[in-house]
Amino acid sequence: MGLTTAAIISTGTEILQGLYADTNARWLAEQLSAEGMEVRLSAAAPDDAEEIESLLRYAAQRADLVICSGGLGPTADDVNREVFARVFGMALVRDERAVTMMRERFARRGREMPESNLVQALVPEGAIVLYNEWGTAPGFFIPPAEERGRAHVHAPSCALLALPGPPRELYAMFRELALPLLRERIGARRYVLKRVIHTFGAPESEVGQYVHDLFATTADYAYTMLAKPHGIDIRIVVRASSLEEATLRLNELEKETRRRVPQELIYGYDDDTLPAVVAKMLTNHHIRLAVAESCTGGLVSKLLTDIPGSSAFFVQGLVTYANEAKMRLLGVHPTTLEKHGAVSEQTARAMAEGARQIADADYALAITGIAGPSGGTAAKPVGLTYIALADRANTNVQRFVFGGDREFNRMFAALTALNWLRLKLMT
Amino acid sequence: MGLTTAAIISTGTEILQGLYADTNARWLAEQLSAEGMEVRLSAAAPDDAEEIESLLRYAAQRADLVICSGGLGPTADDVNREVFARVFGMALVRDERAVTMMRERFARRGREMPESNLVQALVPEGAIVLYNEWGTAPGFFIPPAEERGRAHVHAPSCALLALPGPPRELYAMFRELALPLLRERIGARRYVLKRVIHTFGAPESEVGQYVHDLFATTADYAYTMLAKPHGIDIRIVVRASSLEEATLRLNELEKETRRRVPQELIYGYDDDTLPAVVAKMLTNHHIRLAVAESCTGGLVSKLLTDIPGSSAFFVQGLVTYANEAKMRLLGVHPTTLEKHGAVSEQTARAMAEGARQIADADYALAITGIAGPSGGTAAKPVGLTYIALADRANTNVQRFVFGGDREFNRMFAALTALNWLRLKLMT
To answer: Using an 8 Å Cβ cutoff, are A60 and A66 in contact?
Structure first.
């Protein structure tokens, strides 16, 4: 048999008040799916013993494995361990190794452990204790009914994994301690493979037209599209009973997608980002880049220097927000600014050429625009943006009118500039 | 009586595969809490009629109002309307106004509506239809049992609100169409007020020491702390049966917090951000600022120019990633770089002074450091960062060793620099 279906429970009143995103649940869903398990429920309950018990009993009916995160702290609102012991008909016992680890943890920080922390060392008798090297509260794993000894008559047959709520602790304990226990017990393993295909340069409706008949979401196949400022992502997930079948299916779908979507729109796969792809091309081509930014205010420089090793190609960036800076640093002529304005083809061109020359760079990108919310006019509306790309021989300028808010317009302008550079380096 | 408790259900297999964050659920939780409702459950189910029906029946036992998002599309995996009609014992009928609106929507885009879309106009008979002006699928509201006519014997007594999944449509339909219906029915209204107090400059443990005995999370009071790269946030939520009581309670807690936490640590409240607070101070004091960045690569400039109106104080930013740029643009002396290195007190000082002088600015900030992951040595480890602040008379340099990854170190360095400027402007 083994475990094939899973339910995820997060506890915390603040989640139900909308104060925090429940990042643990999403992360756990991703991990369990990657292990081939089918997640049938993901739910959050407040720090209230009755609600948690009720939800746990419901989840136990729907899945072979229930994972609960949170509620293992030392304060009165941390009721999970008591609820779990009651539902599974187990006594709570103090785990002395957990006590020792907690005392040592406090000692290393030169502090005495408050006695109130001792409650965190209580675990259901017969559970496998998961010793926490990343925080104080231990987690525990109650194996499925067939592995337990004397079974409590009303105890659910599912397995229960209890993990502390802080994400750093939860991630580490799941990976290091829980996953080996689960893998021994996951039945009828199914293999899950994912591929994300990143595009930039065409709107969602256009990308959709190429692939619309491939869209579907079933338990074994998900083909979806997501619009992000960083472009339109196509996401493919396949599940199959063998790795070969899953690989074959994924490769077929990827190939079919690549056959349909124009090659120049696809900038990368999976964890690739547009700045990282451009950074790699610049490094490989030994190209020295300079950047001059007005409306994007340093964002292009920031995106490129996010990449480790960017000193190989990034010479310098000039954030010339004020006109005086455009003149002083980039040598933009006062009459250019007077006659055409700071947001104009002519100013963009002069910025790029100035930036390239003073850095003695191979290429320079320049951006000037009106990010909003104010500063727009009928002739030069919010979103109007000029991007210039200069090399040692030529300078080209493109004009755009972006339709988002300030944050979107700045990000989209920066990525559009990087994408232009990518296309130039492709040829 | 009226509605006092709520449950939120999101449907979508991709949520349970961890592919997307369930942003609708968090947003709805926040809205319902602000209306004084108590959210008792937030759960996601796959696009599977059996799972959705089961979860809906469970949620109906826990709450007076169940809100379901998603699953109203035109494809085969959109099963929600059928499930809802079955559970509430209502027939599905075609709403002709919804059909007309959908046809008009397609016509406006110059397209014929595919007949497959007609299924989206089916709604449970007797439900209040929520006409969707922001997308295709209408939503609907099934009022609580006491308002319904002939009641189906197994139908839950709760009210049901069904909304389409795309966030833009869901937000608009909830605000414009659903909220008025809910407000008429929310019983024993409770008033919810929130306050976030933002601190920067002290670790979580220190902030915690000032306020640890105020921590609690109950249905009527939540006092929590959250560590973010942008500092330590203290969050207070109070609920009370009158606005006066809630206001009084919140003000007391805020006052008590301010009495305990050193004033210089608190940079703002609620939606305030550190860059925005600094931007406002610079604008009010008519101060011209220049920035020179090495390891942060434009992030300080980006954060400041995120703020609309930053041209009032931001003169220019120089991203001098390479040593040649530090010499050429900032006039850092070659022997300073040779003798002390690019990451040194001396280089930081020279960068700030150079940046201030060439911009003729009142203040200049400079940052040089080793963001990682590589580039560290025993003497100069990853995370080592020098920040310099120059004014027309003096230059001061501070040394830090940040302990995070590249992204964290860069963000924390940028915010530490801005916070220093804030403290300087406070005096």
So the answer is: yes
